[in-house]
Specification:
single chain; 134 residues
Length: 134
């Protein structure tokens, strides 16, 4: 009888340990998912802010540049073709430089999810250490 109850208690202990392990793994997964969602929200707000500022700045710079070119054309009315030609060359040159900068930036890898991946790596390392100890 005592052997039967000991085996049954061992099975119950094993079941409780397995249940605790699953609960721990679920808690870790939940924490990592929450971290991932937070990173996505932060990135979304950062990108929206950057786009709004970039569009506003581009519009204001374009308007200011057109106004400066018009003022120069009026000031140098006899050379207005030269003023408009030089302004066009300048605009195209700056446009190509911005385009090249954009291509360089697009070629760089994104830093999104770095925190989540680092935490998952730390969790995996800790699980490996714990497995090696047993």
């Amino acid at each position: 009888m005592s052997a039967g109850t000991g085996g049954e208690a061992g099975r119950q202990g094993l079941f409780v340990s397995l249940k605790n392990l699953v609960a721990t793994l679920l808690a870790i997964g939940k924490t990592r998912a929450e971290l991932l969602v937070n990173e996505l929200e932060e990135e979304k707000f950062r990108l929206m802010s950057l786009w709004a500022k970039a569009i506003g700045a581009a519009w204001l710079f374009a308007l200011g540049t057109v106004m400066v070119v018009c003022c120069l054309a009026v000031a140098f009315w006899e050379q207005r073709v030269l003023v408009f030609g030089l302004a066009s060359v300048l605009f195209l040159g700056v446009g190509f430089m911005v385009f090249a900068s954009l291509r360089r930036q697009m070629a760089q890898p994104s830093k999104i999810f770095r925190g989540s991946l680092a935490e998952l790596e730390a969790d995996m390392a800790q699980l490996r250490r714990h497995k090696d100890v047993q």
